[in-house]
Amino acid sequence: MDDCNLQGRTALVTGGFSGLGLHFARVLATRGARVALIGRRIELGRELAETIGKVTARPQDVRAYQADVTQAASVDSAFAQVAADLGVPNIVVNNAGTVVRGPSMDLADDDWSAVVDVNLSGVFRVAQAAAREMVRVGQPGSIINIASILGLRVRPQVAAYATSKAAVVQLTKALALEWAVHGIRVNAIAPGYFETDINREFLRSPAGQALVARVPQKRVGQLSDLDGPLLLLASDASTYMTGTVIPVDGGHLVNSL
């Protein structure tokens, strides 16, 4: 794990004020990176950044920034602020996401557009802004898109989410192909089911327990199960990896049909 030391690097995490994003920010900061948490609820973000800064004893190296990934100008502004305060990010974790559940025939056009705009277009806006900054200063970097096993297989009543995540998988490969010449690696992590504030109630319900029973390891993921893949892709341990998608799902994708 010596290659996973991130001292001297700047990481930017979207959707960093809760769930997986907050965990990613903590892990990267613990490994020595300067970390920018990006989200919309800035007061909450500042509190969280302050807490992480105290834990790592580097309060000046962990900061929160307000941005909306559905607005290109907002994303560009956030990158400019981060670059001025912490340096141009070497590591970008594209984590912001949303979901609308319900029968596809009842899915409103606005709900479809809202999911796609955050989960797909938002990922592209952030990746594009990151790549432009990396090229501007002539530095290599690692962009890590957070996809989902629902981008590789499907389940009912999450059509917009599954479609957007499948597109993120292909976007990851397309950007990896184009940007390799600049020393920019683009990879993705495809988590299975992890218990967070958003899905905790569902996963503990009878329907949720039935889903967990389909996982070969017979459990949902713990946030720490994502640490290895995250640090692998963020660090020099993966310098020859780009365009890859790493499922972290307890074997869910390989269960019997």
The helix content, as a percent range, equals 40-55%
Would you list the SSEs in sequence order as H and E?
A: EHEHEHEHEHEHHHE
* Structural classification: alpha/beta
In total, the number of strands is 7
Strand order of the largest sheet: 3-2-1-4-5-6-7
Q: How many helix segments?
A: 8
Mean pLDDT: 96
Indicate the proportion of strand residues. 5-15%
What does this structure look like?
The protein has 257 residues and is of the alpha/beta class. A seven-stranded parallel β-sheet has the order 3-2-1-4-5-6-7, sandwiched between helices. The chain is built from eight helices and seven strands. It has helices at residues 19-30, 42-56, 72-86, 109-137, 159-179, 200-203, 206-213, 227-234, and strands spanning 10-14, 34-39, 62-66, 91-94, 141-146, 184-191, 245-248. Helix 2 (42-56) links the parallel strand 2 (34-39) and strand 3. It is 44% helix and 15% strand. The mean pLDDT is 96. The protein is globular. Helix 1 (19-30) packs parallel to helix 2.
Descriptive labels:
7-stranded parallel sheet; 8 helices; alpha/beta
Short description:
With 257 residues, this protein is an alpha/beta fold. The chain is built from 8 helices and 7 strands. The protein has helices spanning 19-30, 42-56, 72-86, 109-137, 159-179, 200-203, 206-213, 227-234, and strands at 10-14, 34-39, 62-66, 91-94, 141-146, 184-191, 245-248.
